[in-house]
Amino acid sequence: MTVVTLDQAIELAEQLPLEQQEMLVDILRKRQIEVRRREIAQYARESVSAFHAGKLKSQTADEVIKELHRESDDILVDIGTHDEVY
User: Fold this and answer.
1) Distance between CA atoms of 55 and 47, rounded to whole angstroms?
2) Which pLDDT score, from 0 to 100, does residue 75 have?
3) pTM of whole model > 0.85?
4) Is the distance from CB of 24 to CB of 13 less than 8 angstroms?
5) The predicted structure's pLDDT at residue 86
6) 55 by DSSP, 3-state: which?
7) What's residue 84's pLDDT?
8) Quick check: helix, strand or coil at residue 4?
9) What does the alpha-carbon distance between residue 33 and residue 25 come to, in Å, rounded to a whole number?
10) How far apart are CA 51 and CA 57, in angstroms?
11) 74 within 8 A of 80, measured Cβ to Cβ
């Protein structure tokens, strides 16, 4: 299989009529959505398996939100402030 660089792919796509370029973009976007959908489904299957194996605990939405807030606060403390001027 020949490896095509991104620049080469763009050059080839630009040679297509505008309507076909739009079709190509639509096809690529739909394929990306499908790949992401499969990834999410796989993650969900793994999560359900982990839950049934006792590796995850049941939590209310409020508990999850509080935990997310604690984790985001910890991340902000680790990052520190960014008052520097770039």
Assistant:
1) 9
2) 74
3) no
4) yes
5) 47
6) coil
7) 54
8) coil
9) 12
10) 7
11) no
Per-residue burial over 16-28, b if 16 or more Cβ lie within 10 Å, else e, is eeeeeeeeeeeee
Rounded CA separation 44/52 (Å): 12
The whole-angstrom separation of Cα 59 and Cα 36 is 26
| Every domain of the chain and the residues it spans | 6-79
> pLDDT truncated to tens, each residue of the chain (86 aa)?
899 999 999 999 999 999 999 999 999 999 999 999 999 999 999 999 999 999 988 899 999 999 999 888 877 666 665 555 54
**Do 26 and 17 meet the contact criterion of CB atoms below 8 Å apart?**
no
Dmax (CA) of the chain: 55
Local structure of 68: helix, strand or coil: helix
Evaluate whether 13 touches 21 at the Cβ level (below 8 Å): yes
* Locus of tokens 């991104």: 6
Tokens of 51: 């839950």
pLDDT at site 74: 76
